[in-house]
């Protein structure tokens, strides 16, 4: 499996690797043999000490005893700074440097880490991730299905995902209770940037829709506008929002989980324009 991961990452000496959860360093050593530099992140102190022993003869590895997340919505800034500083000061004679992420992500941090990495300032080009299968199912889910949600949307917004290999529990020790999968994410952080007029508004619309999946789209947007400080009562907002929804071809009684990415972008643009016009008129 380790060799498969290394091959899938298509490593070269121009690659800067952020490895999250380096453990005792078995995979790290294989990566270091082919990559230009590896930033190996391991938060467990005992594992970090073993990692240091494993990598003591590797001169192209920087080991970091830190949690990848500073908070739920932010990659640890010291880790970002370390990678950024290296990229900004390193020299190469053959092409541009390329940042890639390799990780076996624990279930409980998978979603925030993936979303935060996709939104991070680091110009990541590729991620090879080992994840629980239900996480990968959510990443590639289609609108209207039970797995479709914020992770599906953000993944499609910033990347193309391919499931490379499904893994049964017995390939790990200790064996988990669920199946896993290795996925390849080809990242393009500007994939839809020219289509979204206000990224914060896009995020707000997504959050409003998925904080209560069973609400109708009209009610989700109503809650968003009321919290946004628009000085209108609920009935007035309903009367404003219904034609906005119809303008973009969306039934006000539908649920947000039925919308594909293109519809969500168009809707968020219209909501952004509406909110700005209401605040300007005050």
Automatic annotation (TrEMBL):
Coiled coil (residue ranges): none
SMART domains in the record: rADc (SM00650)
Keyword Transmembrane helix: no
Record-annotated membrane-spanning stretches: none
Protein keywords: Cytoplasm, Methyltransferase, RNA-binding, rRNA processing, S-adenosyl-L-methionine, Transferase
Molecular function GO terms recorded: RNA binding; rRNA (adenine-N6,N6-)-dimethyltransferase activity
Species name: marine sediment metagenome
Domain Ribosomal RNA adenine methylase transferase N-terminal: 1-189
Annotated InterPro entries: KsgA/Erm, rRNA_Ade_diMease-like_C, rRNA_Ade_Mease_Trfase_CS, rRNA_Ade_methylase_Trfase_N, rRNA_adenine_dimethylase, SAM-dependent_MTases_sf
Protein name: Ribosomal RNA adenine methylase transferase N-terminal domain-containing protein
One Gene Ontology cellular component annotation held by this UniProt entry: cytosol
């Amino acid at each position: 499996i380790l060799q498969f991961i290394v091959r899938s990452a298509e490593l070269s000496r121009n690659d800067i690797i952020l490895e999250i959860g380096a453990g005792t360093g078995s995979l790290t050593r294989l990566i270091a043999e082919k990559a230009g530099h590896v930033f190996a992140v391991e938060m467990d102190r005992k594992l970090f000490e073993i990692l240091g022993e494993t990598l003591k003869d590797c001169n192209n590895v920087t080991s970091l005893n830190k949690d990848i997340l500073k908070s739920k919505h932010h990659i640890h800034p010291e880790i970002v700074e370390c990678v950024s500083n290296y990229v900004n000061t390193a020299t190469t004679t053959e092409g541009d440097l390329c940042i890639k992420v390799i990780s076996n992500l624990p279930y409980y941090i998978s979603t925030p880490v993936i979303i935060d990495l996709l939104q991070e300032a680091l110009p990541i080009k590729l991620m090879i991730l080992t994840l629980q299968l239900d996480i990968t199912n959510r990443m590639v889910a289609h609108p209207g299905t039970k797995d479709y949600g914020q992770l599906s949307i953000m993944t499609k917004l910033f990347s193309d995902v391919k499931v490379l290999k499904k893994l049964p529990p017995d390939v790990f020790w200790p064996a988990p209770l669920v199946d896993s999968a290795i996925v390849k994410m080809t990242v393009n952080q500007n994939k839809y940037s020219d289509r979204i007029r206000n990224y914060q508004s896009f995020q707000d619309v997504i959050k409003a829709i998925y904080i209560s999946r069973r609400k109708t789209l009209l009610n989700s947007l109503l809650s968003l506008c009321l919290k946004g400080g628009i000085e209108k009562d609920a009935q007035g907002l309903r009367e404003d929002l219904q034609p906005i929804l119809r303008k973009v071809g969306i039934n006000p009684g539908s649920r947000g989980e039925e919308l594909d990415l293109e519809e969500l972008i168009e809707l968020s643009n219209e909501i952004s324009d509406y909110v700005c016009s209401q605040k300007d008129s005050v």
